[in-house]
Structure formats: structure tokens, C-alpha cells
């Protein structure tokens, strides 16, 4: 809900701001529900990676 509120506030200030990048493989449905326009789903496509030192 905070994402949606922030998005509406930003568009009131800067209507040309149309990209909202939020959400990852584990929560992309929620991000889309709250108006994210870009999501990061790399691990769903490529699998998980080992942490880099």
C-alpha cells in the first residue's frame, strides 16, 4: 500500500514519472497489485546463485 501511495504522490509532482520498479521473484504478485510497472524475476528464470564474497 505504501508503494501505491508513493506512486500517486510522485505522479502528482512529476506526471512523466511512469516507471515503478518494485518486487522480486518471491513477491511480484503483490508488487503488480500495487501498481509496479517493472519487477525483478531473475531467480525464477535463472535459478538462485551462490553468494559472492
Q: Count of helical segments? A: 3
> What's the number of extended β-strand segments?
0
Distance between the amino and carboxyl termini:
35 Å
User: Residue ranges: pLDDT <50 for 5 or more in a row?
Assistant: none
What count of domains describes the coordinates?
1
Mean pLDDT: 81
- Return the structural class: mainly alpha
If you compute it from the alpha carbons, what radius of gyration comes out, rounded to the nearest whole angstrom?
14 Å
Main beta-sheet strand count, sense and barrel state: none
What is the percent of helical residues?
Answer: 40-55%
Strand content: under 5%
Please provide a written account of the structure.
The chain has 53 residues and is an all-alpha fold. It has one domain (2-46). Helices cover 43% and strands 0% of the residues. It has three helices and no strands. It has helices at 2-13, 28-33, 42-46. The N and C termini lie far apart (35 Å).
Can you tag this structure with a few keywords?
53 residues, mainly alpha
Report a brief summary of the structure.
Helix content is 43%, strand content 0%. It has helices at 2-13, 28-33, 42-46.
Write the layout of secondary structure elements.
Elements: H1 2-13, H2 28-33, H3 42-46
Amino acid at each position: 500500500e505504501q508503494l501505491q501511495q508513493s506512486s500517486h504522490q510522485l505522479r502528482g509532482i512529476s506526471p512523466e514519472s511512469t516507471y515503478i520498479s518494485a518486487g522480486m521473484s518471491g513477491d511480484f504478485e503483490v508488487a503488480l497489485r500495487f501498481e509496479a510497472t517493472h519487477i525483478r524475476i531473475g531467480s525464477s528464470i535463472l535459478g538462485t546463485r551462490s553468494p559472492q564474497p
